[in-house]
Design a protein that fits this description.
Protein name: Alpha/beta hydrolase
Keywords: Hydrolase, Membrane, Transmembrane, Transmembrane helix
Mean pLDDT: 85
GO molecular function, one term: hydrolase activity
CATH architecture of one domain: 3-Layer(aba) Sandwich
Strand order of the largest sheet: 1-2-4-3-5-6-7-8
CATH topology of one domain: Rossmann fold
Pfam families: Abhydrolase_1
Radius of gyration: 22 Å
Largest sheet: 8 strands, mixed
Length: 321
């Protein structure tokens, strides 16, 4: 074995060159996310700065039938990699049923600013309640509906302002869904920026293309997905800075509430019987722990509001007053 100083010096230099090269390389590889936020992604698109963070939202005023009263205010919060587009099949019927509907892109997703709430700005509860306040929507109480990761968001909103919440509805998600973040030695390693960038590059190569997104959505939907839907999900993720922010957000996570903290609320769960992303067992466990009611959509998978909107609306409207 060679123990000469020159041998170890050369070995150290080579090691540093390799580590340095691996640390710089991911910043050279493009992610494919080079688009800018469009001026108006949808006809109803609006942008609002809250706590220094620009949020994209869409608002749908209640349109009850003649002689019918407005039934309440409803906030719809999407899941991981979703956006206001995820609720496209239900906001119209909810308007017609007499609800004032607000949908918003939770950063870093959709067309909102690519920051990590809580770590790089106000947390999700502060941002969304801040948006409601900025819009002047302070009258009365709100029904909060969250899908998948959005379930954890609405749970934190409810805990932050319980006197502003009427019904709390979690769809295919719990107060813990996608909230854990990095833990252990893996979490420590992920805090190293080049490692985060490598994850961004690898994730972008796998997901930020039509075949990758089609596979992911087909799995979540439990059925084939139309090309237009794939394109709509890809569009906001291809905006500059989005993939990096998503990886930072997944690493950061958010501390989940205890199940007992949800008991004071009128909590209902809606779940697809074929959900492979967040198994039904999670919903059953939460229903028991938080004394909530679980509504099962037997034929649906992880995104029932997109794949089975009529059945989803029947359950949701039966829950809401």
């Amino acid at each position: 074995m060679n123990n000469s100083p020159n041998f170890w010096r050369t070995g150290l230099i080579m090691f540093l060159i390799i580590v340095g090269g691996l640390s710089l390389l991911p910043y050279i590889i493009p992610t494919g996310a080079d688009q800018r936020v469009p001026e108006s992604p949808f006809a109803e698109s609006r942008f609002q700065a809250v706590g220094g963070v620009t949020l994209h939202y869409r608002e749908f005023p209640a349109r009850p039938a003649e002689g019918q009263a407005v039934r309440g205010q409803l906030l719809l919060v999407h899941g991981l990699a979703g956006s206001t587009y995820s609720w496209r099949h239900v906001h119209g019927p909810l308007q017609a049923a007499g609800y004032h509907v607000l949908t918003v892109d939770v950063p870093p997703f959709g067309y909102s600013e690519p920051i990590v709430p809580g770590a790089e700005g106000p947390d999700e509860a502060e941002l969304l309640w801040g948006l409601i306040d900025a819009l002047g929507e302070q009258r009365g109480r709100w029904h909060l509906v969250g899908h998948s990761m959005g379930s954890a968001v609405v749970a934190r909103m409810a805990a932050a302002a319980p006197d502003r919440v009427d019904q709390l509805v979690m769809v295919a998600g719990t107060h813990e869904t996608a909230s854990e973040g990095g833990a252990g030695i893996g979490g420590v390693i992920m805090q190293y920026p080049p490692v985060q960038r490598w994850l961004t590059v690898i994730g972008s190569r796998r997901l930020l293309n039509e075949p990758g997104m089609e596979r992911a959505l087909s799995s979540a939907y439990g059925q084939e997905v139309e090309e237009a839907v794939v394109a709509a999900y890809l569009a906001p993720l291809r905006i500059r800075g989005k993939p990096d922010a998503v990886i930072r957000g997944l690493q950061a996570g958010s501390p989940p509430l205890a199940s007992a903290e949800l008991r004071p609320f009128s909590l209902n769960l809606i779940w697809g019987g074929h959900d492979e992303w967040v198994p039904l067992s999670h919903g059953r466990r939460l229903a028991e722990a938080a004394e909530a009611e679980l509504h099962l959509l037997d034929e649906a998978a992880h995104n029932p509001m997109e794949t089975h909107p009529d059945a989803f609306l029947d359950r949701l409207l039966a829950i809401l007053p």
